[in-house]
Amino acid sequence: MTLRVAVVGGGPAGIYAADILTKSDTEVSVDIIERLPAPFGLVRYGVAPDHPRIKEIIKALHRVLAKPEVRFLGNVEYGVDVKLEDLRAFYDAVIISTGAMADRDLGIPGEEHSLGAADFVSWYDAHPDVPQTWPLDARSVAVVGVGNVALDIARVLAKTGDEMLVTDIPEHVYRGLAAKTTTDVHVFARRGPAYAKFSPLELRELNHSPNVEVIVHPEGFDVDADGMAHIAKHKAQKMVLNTLSNWVGADPVGKPHRIHLHFAEAPAAIVADRDGRVTTFRTERTHSPNADGSVEGTGEFTDWDVQAVYRAVGYRSAALPDLPFDDRNAVIPNDGGRVLDIEGNAIPGTYVTGWIKRGPVGLIGHTKSDAAETVEHVLADTVETATLRAPADVDAYLAERGIAVATDVAWERLDEHEVALGEAAGRARIKVAERAEMLRVGGVGESA
Fold first, then answer.
1. In terms of domains, do 113 and 96 share one?
2. Domain membership flag for residue 448
3. Are 160 and 249 in the same domain?
């Protein structure tokens, strides 16, 4: 028997699952079903364009898609174009790997006037489902969060548009960044520097721009005995603290743009005028009375003169049709990847991997072990259940419903086109941003 598996979601988690399946002793046939016309998920639409080093992972993902046992079916949206009961007719197992793309809330007054990190990232990464304009008229900006996404946002806001022109951004993103008026970006952390979640390399890259200087403010930059014990157990955070310590109190060098890092400042409120324009970001100084690094407010508040506030406190997965969802933890309930119903029983033939399985934590590479655990269960559990077992059966079903499927061939055409656009401009790639244009370039809908 050839095991038929559908992987819903074409990001790293889903592609890793497909790769591990094909390397098993079981004969498999895997269809990766993706709502966008292009694969790679957050590697393509979540990594900052000035970090091509991270995007090198795409080369490995490309090789998985090229395997004969794997097909890419893009521009097909789960819950709209195909439902779970439809997939059960074609596949013995369904692995959900739709990731996390919504922003978590701050839970403070005036939050409705803030901007979401995920939305901004989608804009500068030329996601086909977001508007091509973004408000970039703030002189001073607040970014709440101490993860790598917060650093990406701060760096993109601080750098000039011309600095970003060497990347894969299309024209509309360049025009927006070139016209922005931001001079100061303030990044706020609830806890002290010993608990910052930046990766060391991301942090060091923050001041590589000739136009941006990093200012670490000494207020709140305290490391007590508990903090020192914490970094002693975490090599990466020790490296982060060393970098930050070198920047504290450094003399300004007069660069035109500045990134300010503030520690022990918790978001308290966002104030806007009658027209909804942000005028003030209010924070509360915190202290850490507990050994675990958790913080409490001190009652000391500061008002910051900013014109925009970005939430970068984590991503959140969304519920999917016909599947249970744990709204508190924003994951599909599961046991090692086996999806569980409301009574805690495994739903036959239904699995999860990636962030929708365990939450948006860890780096891209961490999804490999996560996928391996899920695939182990798939191979142990799955029996032949699909009644329509040929790939042509899926193709006929989607064609009958009028779905314009972006296949592997369509993606290869789009990929080659973007690379050609880049070569003409002296860059590695220039993205196509509009969904209709992506499909047109891929030849989707053309007669054979």
1. no
2. no
3. yes
Give yes or no for a contact between 429 and 422, defined as CB atoms under 8 angstroms apart: yes
What digits encode the pLDDT tens for the residues 133-190?
999 999 999 999 989 999 999 999 999 999 999 999 999 999 999 999 999 999 999 9
| 31 and 147 both lie in a single domain | no
Pairing mode, strands 308-311 and 140-144: parallel
**Which helix or strand (DSSP H or E) is residue 143 part of?**
strand 140-144
Cα(309)–Cα(119) distance, rounded to whole angstroms? 13
* DSSP letters spanning 283-308: EEEEE--STT---EEEEEEEEE--SE
The secondary structure of residue 147, as a DSSP letter, is S
Residue span of the structural domain in which 73 resides: 3-101+317-405
Cα distance between residue 263 and residue 426, in whole Å? 40
Q: What is the 3-state secondary structure (H, E, C) of 219-274?
A: CCCCCCHHHHHHHHCCHHHHHHHHHHHHHECCCCCCCCEEEEEECCEEEEEEEECC
Give the contacts of 316 (CB within 8 A, at least 6 positions apart).
Answer: 100, 102, 103, 104, 330, 360
Single out the residue of 380, 384, 405, 408 nearest to residue 395, CA to CA: 405
| Residue 52: pLDDT over 80 | no
Please report whether residue 205 resides in a domain. yes
Domain boundary among 292, 315, 338: 315
Residues 236 and 132 in one domain: yes
Long-range Cβ contacts of 419-425 (<8 Å, 24+ apart)? 422/168
What residue type is 284 in one-letter code? E
Buried b (16+ CB within 10 A) or exposed e, 147-174: bbbbbbbbbbbbbbbebbbebbbbebbb
- 135, amino acid identity: P
pLDDT in tens, 256-309: 999 999 999 999 999 999 999 999 999 999 998 887 788 999 999 999 999 999
- Domains in the chain, number: 2
pLDDT tens column, 12-34: 999 999 999 999 999 999 999 99
Residues 239 and 271 in one domain: yes
Average pLDDT of the residues in 326-334: 94
Note the pTM of the prediction, 2 decimals. 0.94
Place of tokens 């500068």: 124
Q: Which residues of 10-19 are buried (b: 16+ CB within 10 A; e: fewer)?
A: bbbbbbbbbb
- CATH value at residue 210: 3.50.50.60
Examine the domain organization and report whether 190 and 156 are in the same domain: yes
Q: Which two tokens stand for residue 236?
A: 């990466």
